[in-house]
From TrEMBL, chains A, B:
InterPro entries: FA_synthesis, Phospholipid_synth_PlsX-like
Gene designation: plsX
Location(s) in or outside the cell: Cytoplasm
Top-rank taxon: Bacteria
This protein's name: Phosphate acyltransferase
Length: 347, 347
């Protein structure tokens, strides 16, 4: 599906995220310098062209603009927004993937709208009942791990959790470059038999599968990087992710408030600022590249809403690696063969 | 059920927690100075007496020692531990509550063992199918809110979530002193209709109840203090709590590592230490008093495993307020009357 001259064609949502259109355009331009990629800029034509000219500093526009006159706002109810805004950048971008005009779509727009449009326009891969939102979360050693489902599907059964594991393993191998990915199950205790019915059954199935299964892992241990892939249902994963974000934010807010109250601390905080910034960045999963809707029959990457150009570029980089690794094809080969050789255990 | 001279009799697990027996003894002594309370010290007689004498500095021991020759370690599998260690401080302490010799039991020992012993020896209140672990979690404004279930029961249905809400409201009113507690439901989106089947049904029931229901709240918003009581099932609550703890710990570890690498930052960190300590304390739910197994037919408070004397004393303080507020009696009055006046809405 590669485009002109062996380049992957990645559609970029120019209107997605808090820093649109500046950050998506800058990120796309950065990606063009780093990877063999052709960008399809999706957004209102005049606005996109103006931003491109402003950043490139010339009159010739790199890549191709695909017009989309509407924008889905973060507050729009996803499903209704798709109906009311059929010419939005999200719908147009995903349609490009569906129609084979783009190899992947990258957006910092509304997760719910991307999810809804993805399900509606692309559908799921054969054998996959529900897609999962997967993202690389940070670990203390900087390696990171893939966690899914972070909230694409509110319900899941044990078979679906096994499918998430399979898809995660393929992603970890083909995109993150982990030769023999280990899988863990998020749970409320490390021993087998812990958790509710769903998690006890998922544990049994994963233990019986051909996957390299590391057993249960508690949310507290995630930062130690207990596995390459951690699976859970979308409700639990979304709560865990938002709990982590909440603590991070609370931590910085309190730190700021406390520092502001003390002159000496204010001086010290100035000296510490680069340290604090680095710590914050290490804990920010947005830095580790985009999230991906695994299980959709098409590549849709979701960058953090506050993505800067580097985060957008990283999202495009992940899309390129997914194309190069023939991710969807490999997932198709592996689903339903959890006990077989297709999972590459020990390869 | 008050003891001698109008004092509440609180049994304290002298062997529970990382800092036993020093912290439980010091915490108990502090509580005796602050509240009308008589302490029953539960643990190996000679060891408890020696620690008491060491801390009091005399030969007369304040309160009464209730001998318990065994200790359940944090790593012991809870249910097996109860069988193998029938004379452990946890079993003896909860038996004191069951037999009416103590009004409450406070322990920094194994949550699982406390839970198992509580269910086995005390059972649940009439109408309550499963108990819930409730704790006051921190908010940015320092008020805090009660969250439950944090992991007492891995399964719950919508009716049980409503019962958690009722018990939480009674606790918030009688123990935390909130005159008209508001309840929120933890969920993955703020609108009604969000979440999985369990949470959609719980939302409907809570909206129909006589409770002051604030709707759904996302884990990310918890630190803003969206309600006095936040309910969820024990699996989700436990994952959320541990995710928050994990980020907190990761945050401090990274900060330390980064600071150690830079001499100037090391100096600044010295100046900032009191600030960092204060922030850490504000985010530490252990500071806000003990967790409680709500729904058991008896008062069992669980302090954090790393509790210092102040945290233990706060746990005893919460026990005293629960006794004074006749918590169990009030819960009994309110269960099954979620649509009635017993909930004190608008009182």
């Amino acid at each position: 599906m590669s485009g002109r001259a062996g380049r992957w064609r990645v559609a970029v949502d120019v209107m997605g995220g808090d820093r649109a259109p500046g950050a998506p355009v800058a990120g796309g331009l950065e990606a063009m310098r780093r990877w063999p990629v052709e960008i399809l800029w999706v957004g209102p034509e005049a606005q996109v062209a103006a931003e491109l000219r402003r950043q490139v500093g010339g009159s010739r526009v790199p890549g191709r603009i695909v017009p989309a006159s509407q924008v889905i706002e973060p507050g729009d109810p996803p499903v209704a927004a798709l109906r009311r805004k059929p010419d939005s950048s999200i719908v147009v971008g995903i349609r490009l993937v569906r129609d084979g005009e783009a190899d992947a779509f990258v957006s910092a727009g509304s997760t719910g709208a991307l999810m809804a449009a993805g399900k509606l326009l692309l559908g799921t891969l054969p054998g996959i009942a529900r897609p999962a939102l997967a993202a690389v979360l940070p670990t203390l050693d900087g390696r990171g791990f893939l966690m899914l489902d972070l909230g694409a599907s509110a319900e899941a059964d044990a078979e679906q959790l096994v499918h998430y594991a399979v898809m995660g393993v393929v992603y970890a191998r083909e995109v993150l470059g982990r030769p023999a990915p280990r899988v863990a199950l998020l749970n409320i205790g490390s021993e087998a038999g812990k958790g509710n019915r769903l998690y006890r059954e998922a544990h049994e199935r994963l233990a019986r599968s051909g996957l390299d299964f590391a057993g249960n892992v508690e949310a507290r241990e995630l930062f130690a990087g207990p596995a390459d892939v951690v699976v859970c249902d979308g409700f639990t994963g979304n709560v865990a992710l938002k709990a982590m974000e909440g603590v991070g934010e609370a931590c910085w807010k309190l730190l700021k408030a406390e520092v502001a109250r003390r002159p000496l601390a204010r001086l010290a905080a100035g000296l510490l600022r680069p340290v604090l910034r680095r710590v914050r960045r290490q804990l920010d999963y947005g830095e580790y590249g985009a999230a991906l809707f695994l299980g959709l029959d098409g590549l849709v990457f979701k960058c953090h809403g506050s993505s800067d150009p580097r985060a957008i570029a990283n999202g495009i980089g992940a899309a390129v690696r997914a194309c190069q690794g023939r991710l969807l094809h490999r997932i198709g080969e592996s689903i339903g063969k959890e006990d077989g050789e297709a999972l590459g255990r020990g390869r």
